[in-house]
Amino acid sequence: MEPVLSLRSWLAKVESFGELRHVKGADWDVELGAIAELSYRQPNPVALLFDDITGYDSGKRVLTGSTGSPRRLGHTLRLGDDLDDVGLVAALRGKPSQWAAAAADYPAETVTDSPLLENVIDGPDVNLLSLPVPRWHTGDGGRYIGTGCFVVTRDPEDGIVNGGCYRMEVQDEGRSATINAVPGKHGAQHIQRWFELHGKAPVVVSFGHDPILLITGGTEVPARISELDYAGAIIGEPVPVLIGEHTGLPIPAGSEVAIEGWLRRDHVRNEGPFGEWTGYYSGKRRPAPALEIVRMYHRDDPIQLGAPPGKPPHDYSYMRTVMKSAMIEDALVGAGVAGIRGAWAHESGGGRLFIAVSVENRYAGQAKQVGHLTAQLPAAAYMNRFVVVVDADVDPADLGEVVWAMSTRCDPVKDIDIIPGTWGSKLDPMLVEGAPPYNSRAVVDATRPFERKADFPAVSTGDPEYLQSVLHRWAEVFAP
Ligand SMILES: Cc1cc2nc3c(=O)[nH]c(=O)nc-3n(C[C@H](O)[C@H](O)[C@H](O)COP(=O)(O)O)c2cc1C
């Protein structure tokens, strides 16, 4: 029987609803990534399972596009197996805060058996390049085994486990890999604290699993909640884990491939550049902590879960937009702000850079409150650049409507606030090489001025009820 969070069970389900395609014979060196990139641009992209990858035995596979459709995302989040876009967003409303609240009821459960133990390889014999690790984009500095990965760390003081998704480049001909967690991310904070207290940090990484771990590891689950427990709350049962003999850290028992090891402050390797979610390569090759791998585990014929970023739409941009939008809306409601109608973290801004929020705007100053709060929410603060607040009659997910509101309800001289010195990133193409990773952000109030709400010019579309009756009467004009 397959373990809980087995990628193979997930693949069987997705195949049953016709959203999996098998690709044989692609080269790990750029070609596989290029095929994946072309597929993201299709109207309803399927997931791709690559096998017979050049230079590797059959069975050593790579999956891409796992969360790129409403049906796959809805299935992965256990919200339903036949959801469309609208249905998914509706089903997700309110869920992130419910999952966060329920996580404590689903602590990860220790087990001693798992197919992951089919192959156990100790330090000196570890070779990550025994797997067909892709070089995803032409300009990448190396082969990235960590894209859809789940990096497990533990707070050295309170013991809380974190699971995060951070890019990892293979180093030292396969004996090591760098981990690139941005300062401020929970995993990066754990590692930093271990360095300060003990000089080294224990880490476990899973490279193939039910994509629920890509979603929970790759989006802003609140601090002090383990992503393993949060995933348990989503699936409605505890996540089974093996305990790493060397690090004592939990390893998802449903994993296809996992490693255990230690990061040390002075053990670094140059990594990058890498084609990132901003749509640009991430600057120069720079030092990053490299894992001293003490053990590798893998199933027979392991499957890597790939999730390469790039110019949107990319592998996980749909998932990020849908998840971040729900998390931001939830956080605003949870902060006690009245009249929130919706939030949307647009895909073309990588789900981070451009966020629109729609609000009823019930009192003078509310639009600014919502805008500034959104720009600094833990779910949104990293690498945001624009927040646009719109009235409740504007759909924040419709870029055309948002631009219309900005163009007609906003006086730039007083309705755009600029906040300097905010949480940016080395990935920012606007950052000058070597400068500290701040950015600035603009909070745009594109709501009707509160004091003019009553007499602001009326919107010149027909009355909805009247339009509906006309549509009915003139149906033949609109027949497809
Ligand atoms: C496929 C993928 C790759 C990612 N790569 C990185 C990365 O290299 N570095 C990073 O700091 N965050 C990266 N992220 C974003 C983090 O996973 C995300 O911010 C997450 O909330 C971090 O978890 P944490 O706050 O618990 O550390 C990536 C996300 C995804 C989905």
Q: What does this protein structure show overall?
A:
This protein is 26% helix and 24% strand. It has 480 residues and is of the alpha+beta class. Helix 7 (212-218) crosses helix 8. It is globular.
Fill in the CATH topology of the largest domain: Pnp Oxidase, Chain A
Q: How large is the radius of gyration? A: 23 Å
Q: Which distinct ligands sit in these coordinates?
A: flavin mononucleotide
Strand order of the largest sheet: 5-17-14-11-7-8
Compute the number of helices: 13
| CATH class descriptor name of the largest domain | Mainly Beta
Output the structural class. alpha+beta
* Count of individual domains: 2
Mean pLDDT: 97
Q: Judging by the overall fold, what is the CATH architecture of the largest domain?
A: Roll
Strand and helix layout:
Elements (H helix, E strand, L loop, with lengths): L6 H10 L3 E5 L6 H10 L6 E5 L9 E4 L5 H7 L8 H8 L2 H8 L6 E2 L8 E4 L21 E3 L3 E5 L6 E4 L3 E4 L4 E4 L6 H13 L1 E7 L5 H7 L8 H9 L4 E4 L6 E3 L4 E8 L3 E4 L14 E4 L2 E7 L4 E3 L11 H18 L5 E6 L8 E6 L6 H11 L9 E6 L7 H10 L3 H4 E8 L14 E9 L17 H10 L7
Helix pairs in contact: 7-8
Explain briefly what this protein structure is:
With 480 residues, the protein is α+β, with helices and mostly antiparallel strands.
Question: Which short descriptors sum up this protein?
Answer:
480 residues, alpha+beta, Pnp Oxidase, Chain A, UbiD C-terminal domain-like, 2 domains, 5-stranded mixed sheet, 13 helices, 23 strands, globular, binds flavin mononucleotide, carboxy-lyase activity, UbiD-like_C, UbiD family decarboxylase
